[in-house]
Structures are given as C-alpha cells and as structure tokens.
Amino acid sequence: MIQIQGVSHAIGGTPILHDITTTLPKGRLTALIGPNGAGKSTLLRLVGRLEPLQQGRITVAGHDVATTPTDRLARVMAILGQQTAIASRLRLAELVAFGRWPHHKGRPGPQDQAQVWLALKAFALTDLADRFLDEVSGGQAQRAHIAMAWAQDTDWMLLDEPLNNLDMSHARSLMARLRGLVDQGGRSVAIVVHEINYAAAWADHVIALKGGRVVAQGTAAEVLTEARLSELYETPIRVGTHQGRPLVLHHA
Amino acid sequence: MRPLPALTSALIALMLASLTVGAADIRVTDAFRDPQALLVLLESRLPRTLSVVLTGAALSVAGVLIQALVRNRFVGPDTSGTAEGAALGLLAITILWPASPLWLRMIAASLSAMVTTALFLAVIRRLPVREVMLVPIAGLVLSGVLGSVVTFVGWQTDLMQYVGTWLMSGEFSGVISGRYELLWIAGVAAGLAWFSADRFAILGLGDQVATGLGLSTAAVMRLGLAVVSVVTAMVVTTVGMIPFVGLVVPNLVARIMGDNLRASLPVVALAGAVLVLACDLAGRLVIHPYEVPAGTILGVLGAVLFLWLLHRRPPRSKPAHG
C-alpha cells in the first residue's frame, strides 16, 4: 500500500497540491486522472522521490519516502517520469540492463541477464536491442524506458504517462502487460493517464485530481460517471458501457 | 577492426617512435653502450613520452565525465572554467606564498578548479534543458571571464609568463625526469573513474532515471567534479592546458561505441593518448630540430575534427513524437 498523508506542494511559490490524503491499494492497478495542471504528475513524482517532499508524509510498502535510503527504495519501487530529451548514446539493451543496477550494483549475474532479455522480449525490443537510443523513434525509446523499469522487477511500478508516443497496439499491449503484472505477479501499479478510456478499461482503482485536490476515488465504475467526469473536466461527457466496463465518449 | 587492440598497437608504435625523435642526436639502439644516449632516453625522451600519454588519456576521460555531469556533448575541461580555475589557484598560491612547496600548489590548483567547475555546474542547472547550445556558450563565457581575471591579476603582479605556460600553450618540450610526475596523479584519478563508470553512465541519463535507479546523484556529481578538477589541475600545473582533447575524443568514441562507459572509457583513454602523442610527434618533426607546441597542432586538428563532428551529427533535440 502507498499511503499519502497531508501532502502539500508548491513549485516556485505556486501551490500545486493541497493537503492530499489518500491511499493506493496494494495488488491493484491504480490510475491517476484529471485535467491538465491537476497535480497528477507532481503527486506521482513525490511518491517516486523525484521531487523532495515539502509537507506531509508518504510511505511505500511501509518505507517512508523521505527517510529511506534511495537505493533501498529502488528495490521497492520503479518510477518512470515523463521522457525528456536526453543526449545519451546507449544501446537499448544497455539501457534496459541498467534496470537491474539497483540489484547488482555493477556485477550482473545470469539471473540479471535473463531478466533483461525477458524485458526486451516483453516490449518487442529484441530486434532493436543493438540500436542506439538516439537512433530510434520516440515511441521505441519510450518502450525501452518502460522495459528498463520493468526489468527493475519491484513490487511497485509507477509510470507517468507511459502511453505517450505509443501507437494503439503498443499502448494496449502495455496495459495488458501491466494488468498481467497485477493479476499474475501480485504486483502493484500506478499510472498517470490522459486518455480516460485506458483507465476505464484496465484500472482497478481510479483517483481523480483537480486543482491539486482529490475530488473522487474508488473503482473505475464508481469514479467514471457522467456527472463526475463532466464536472472534473468542465465539459459535457457521456459514459456508455462496453464489455461490462465504462466507455467514455468524449471525442465529439 | 576492434577499437581496443587497434588503439593499443597504434599507441605502442607511437611511443616507440616518440623515443627516437628529438633534438639530441643520439641513436636509441645504442642506449646500452652509449651513456649519453641512455641519459637522454631516461631523463628526457621517456618522461616526455609518458607525460604526453598520461595527459591525453586523463584529459579525455575528464572530458567524458564533465559531459556526463552537464549532460551535454559540447563541453570539455577546457571550456568549463576548470583550467582557468586551476590557474587562478596557482596564481593565488604563487602570490601569497612564492616559496610554497609543490604539493601545496597542486592542492591549491585542484581546490580552485573544483570551485570554478562547481560554479559552472550551478550555472548550468538554471538553464532550460532543451537549449542544447546554451551549455557550451555558458562554459565559454565563464571560461572567458575567469581567464580575464587570471590575466588581470597576472599583469598586475608581473606573473604573465607563468600564466602563459599554464593556459596559453600546452606543450611538452620542457618535460624532463622529475618535472612531470604529477601527471601520474592525473592518470590515477582518471583510472579511478572507471570503477564508477556505470554510475556516470546512469547520471548521463538524467536526474529522473538516476534517482529512479536509486543512484545518489549528488555523490556521483562530487566524484566526477573531483576527478575532472584534479586531472585538469595536474595538467595545467605541469605542461599547460591542451585544448580540444577532452571535447573531441569523447565525441568520436561515443559515435562509434556509444555511452556504455564501462566499455568505452578504456577506449577513450587510449584514443586520447594516441591523438595527443601523434600531435606532439608531428610538432617535433615539422620544423626539426625546433618544435611546434602539441597544443597548437591539436588546436588546428581539433578544430577540424570538431567541425566534422558538428557536420556529421547536428545536436539532437529530437522531437518527442515519432
């Protein structure tokens, strides 16, 4: 379980999060949704200790994020922030292999190599393994970064907008992989997602943020209702159902 | 051809050649019979060859590290305020305590180089990440400002001659046994960096990834800063700053081998040694028995190589979609 207690955060004097208290349940796929600037990414980055905590307390599986050594946390959770332009020239296989670094600290064993190969295979990267990071497309680089987090093989996996740059088929296959991690692997996953139907189709638990506050949380069916979504995004939204799950009709 | 064996053979060949070339008219093969030849070999030729190799290797490794620290390919220890910082420290200790022992000058140069390089890193942190070219420009500006402070103080205190040997012309003609050994410290510092090669490679992937993998970025930054500063300070103290090596060699190697530093750092070190030794040899041969400083040859060659690099691979700020 990830427990977030009384977390407030400001960036450059502008308050982003206001006194957030919530939990992300263990063994579930949690989606963080909300309009632009709601504070979803900031909240995820605070949990993943990519930003220093200003106020409040966050624990991941009992580890206080503010006080636990960062290399210890790297064996409990993998976090992938939004991709920034990085000039590093690593081969994709080398990048994914760094996902094992928290475990072997520079001395990879056969088990680490097997895990890297599985991760490359899981994200359809085996053919690209020898290509340099600056020679592949944005979507391929994104998949390589996700594969790296995957290879880290932690109980918690936090992904900030992992579907960015991915085409339909890779987006769906990623969500299916994450679902499999939760259902078969007993792991817990949290993602920030903009396309609400990915949350509707795949998430167990949905947390809706707006203006730096939690406005709704619960199962996908509880949160993704016409009234809630229309208010959340301040635009009229209709919700149907498809194969027993909500289907959000917002495109026209 | 694999780069490591190819560069190793090239380096050995160049080192042998370097032992045979010089102003003194001796035959190296006579070294066992002719005491004069042996003296020249052990007191001048060998120290010179070693100093060139150590300088080239250490500066190139320092270039890789500073590029990982600032995550930008277009900087080197000669364009990040490091060399000027070392000169500033040397100048200060020379003025404050003219008779200071060598080890104290060395420490002063290293510490001062650390301070100015840390200043460069602090400046870089405040620049927008996407503006790739701002980083080298900031480095050039900082180097320029620090360099003019050094020059001003040098003029005022009548120490311009020293400043010239530290910053203006990197050259090895003054190297004899007993006057280059500090460079071993640079070599050892660069060698130590290899043990943290993975950490520097991860740091080069950006703060987010580094933190996510549990790397203590501040500690790695401090280590990199220390190595870059010590290497540069030793080079500035003994032979004077050699331009372009720390910029060009890491770029050339990264083009071919990528940034897996554990595999590429030895290649970077060898390539740096080969490049500087080739330039020094050329400088000894073009107007034999006189010399052109290796730094001058490298300035010309380095500029050409760098233009070629820029042309081959424009700075990539790749669009996010694709």
Give the CATH topology of the largest domain in chain A.
Rossmann fold
Largest sheet of chain B: none
**How is the largest sheet of chain A built, in terms of strand order?**
6-7-8-3-9-10
By CATH, the superfamily of the largest domain in chain A comes out as P-loop containing nucleotide triphosphate hydrolases
Distance between the termini of chain B: 34 Å
Uncertain stretches of 5 or more adjacent residues of chain A: none
Approximately how much helix is present in the residues of chain A? 25-40%
Give the averaged pLDDT of chain A, no decimals: 93
The CATH topology of chain B comes to ABC transporter involved in vitamin B12 uptake, BtuC
Structural class of chain A: alpha/beta
Broad shape of chain A: globular
Rg over C-alpha atoms of chain B, rounded to the nearest angstrom: 20 Å
The structural domain count of chain A equals 2
Structural class by sheet pairing and helices of chain B: mainly alpha
